[in-house]
Amino acid sequence: MLGKLNHIAIAVADLQSASDLYRLAFDATVSAPQALPDHGVTTVFVELQNTKLELLEPLGNDSPIAKFLEKNPAGGIHHYCIEVDDIQAAIKTAGANNLRILGNGKPKIGAHGKPVVFVHPKDMLGCLVEFEET
Q: Per the confidence metrics, is the pTM higher than 0.85?
């Protein structure tokens, strides 16, 4: 059921500075910023050979990333994303194993234009996990 690691997401207070770090210091390819109001973030992706880094900046004061940065002002790893073939099957499997899907339990469209859900970190060894349908 689990596919490839799609990305590791890092919460940042200043998306431009964080993007510049990867672009200028490491000559990395960094996508254009994309606002995702449904998720409360603005995001960019840093391309790596085997996966991506997603840099997340809060979009508004109610953003979950704003709350994360209150507790972690320097930023830090927020979640990791694993690809799945069928998001509904992943939700069903999670439920059958007492893993809580955050929000209303239904997928939202993520930064790649594909359905995503998040599994509660208390159910996933302390890590927030995103499933993205491929």
A: yes
